[in-house]
Structure to design on (396 residues):
């Protein structure tokens, strides 16, 4: 029996989410060492591409829970005992007629989005991880170039596929000069600088599910397939799949035109011009992969030091636009799949899934990059996931 046949056999027995209001998963929050359950409706987001994950939770009003869930309180949100979000309460509300209370907030990255950098000096020569660690302190105490630990934790207690080798990176020195991300001024937001640094290196940055660290890196495409999402006439493991393909914002060729900055002998902004080119395909005009008729974009950017740097800027812009070429949305029952044994393996970003659409004769490997866990006392439990084809390159 092949590996794929075995996966098919395992996932054919995938349980369906009950539609009678019965809870299959246990969602709870921990505040100050006390656990609060009984949440009727909820939505919890984990993603690799947004700066902050978020949550919204609703339960019957109780005075004890209301007193604990004060705004700006530290909170951990867990599914079946696995922490999937560590952050703070931004808002709370009470609906008297419905007899309910609701809280919402974000993980600790929400602070990075809205807080100014701690200082504007002493950054030159820092390694990328050290720079991000300083920018994210005290909310995160560690920065890592591997997502292995986070991926294992986020999938809970169920079966875990072989991780494969994590993407390896050379340490990249932080670049805080005007030629790259502009001069740092008081009031600059922490996440804005983190995003500029990681983007210039062609890397992602996102928080671990349990809030212990910030992860810098790329998706792991060498890992084994973890889930199977099948849409078919005889076998179905999902509630819905929506495939979208678009070249609206993409280009067959992107050119970046930059100029070296003037110096003491050569004044002016445009001393020497450098050109970088990124192509969608191998042909000279950029056709070959996604275009029948080439579409070209020319961009004027800030100063570039050489042609290689201009080429890198063009490649990063191409990656950013090509990310939307093929997108898949999957609505799956429950918050995970039973891969082996009886314990559900939770859905998590940076995992691979085999996607089968019998109507389109599609059988491909896709990467999950965002999960939205949703529960309703009247509609059961589902997970909405966003996926891109295996090999897709990410940029913040």
């Amino acid at each position: 029996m092949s590996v794929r046949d075995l996966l098919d056999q395992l996932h054919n027995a995938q349980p369906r989410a009950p539609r009678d209001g019965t809870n299959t998963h246990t969602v709870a929050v921990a505040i100050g060492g006390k656990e609060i359950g009984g949440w009727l409706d909820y939505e919890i987001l984990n993603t690799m591409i947004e700066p902050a994950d978020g949550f919204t939770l609703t339960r019957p009003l109780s005075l004890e829970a209301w007193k604990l869930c004060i705004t700006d309180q530290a909170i951990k949100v867990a599914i079946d005992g696995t922490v999937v979000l560590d952050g703070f309460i931004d808002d709370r509300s009470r609906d008297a007629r419905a007899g309910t209370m609701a809280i919402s907030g974000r993980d600790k990255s929400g602070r990075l989005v809205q807080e100014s950098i701690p200082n504007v000096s002493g950054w030159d020569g820092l390694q990328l991880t050290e720079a991000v660690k300083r920018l994210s302190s005290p909310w995160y105490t560690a920065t890592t170039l591997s997502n292995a630990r986070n991926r294992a934790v986020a999938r809970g207690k169920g079966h875990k596929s072989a991780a494969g080798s994590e993407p390896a990176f050379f340490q990249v020195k932080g670049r805080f000069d005007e030629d790259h991300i502009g001069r740092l001024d008081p009031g600059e937001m922490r996440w804005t600088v983190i995003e500029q640094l990681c983007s210039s290196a062609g890397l992602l940055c996102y928080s671990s599910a349990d809030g212990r660290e910030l992860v810098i890196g790329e998706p792991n495409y060498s890992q084994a397939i973890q889930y199977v999402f099948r849409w078919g006439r005889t076998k179905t493991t999902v509630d819905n799949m929506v495939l979208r393909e678009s070249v609206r914002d993409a280009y067959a060729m992107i050119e970046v035109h930059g100029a070296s900055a003037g110096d003491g002998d050569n004044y002016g902004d445009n001393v020497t011009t450098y050109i970088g080119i990124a192509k969608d395909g191998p042909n000279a005009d950029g056709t070959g992969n996604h275009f029948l008729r080439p579409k070209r974009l020319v961009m004027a950017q800030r100063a570039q030091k050489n042609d290689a740097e201009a080429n890198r800027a063009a490649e990063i812009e191409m990656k950013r636009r090509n990310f939307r070429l093929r997108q898949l949305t999957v609505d799956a029952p429950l918050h995970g799949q039973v891969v082996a044994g009886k314990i559900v393996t939770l859905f998590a970003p940076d995992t691979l899934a085999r996607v089968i659409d019998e109507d389109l004769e599609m059988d491909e490997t896709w990467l999950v990059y965002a999960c939205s866990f949703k529960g309703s006392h009247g509609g059961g439990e589902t997970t909405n996931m966003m996926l891109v084809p295996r090999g897709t390159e990410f940029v913040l």
Observations:
- Residues 307-322 form the longest helix (16 residues).
- Residues 253-321 form one domain.
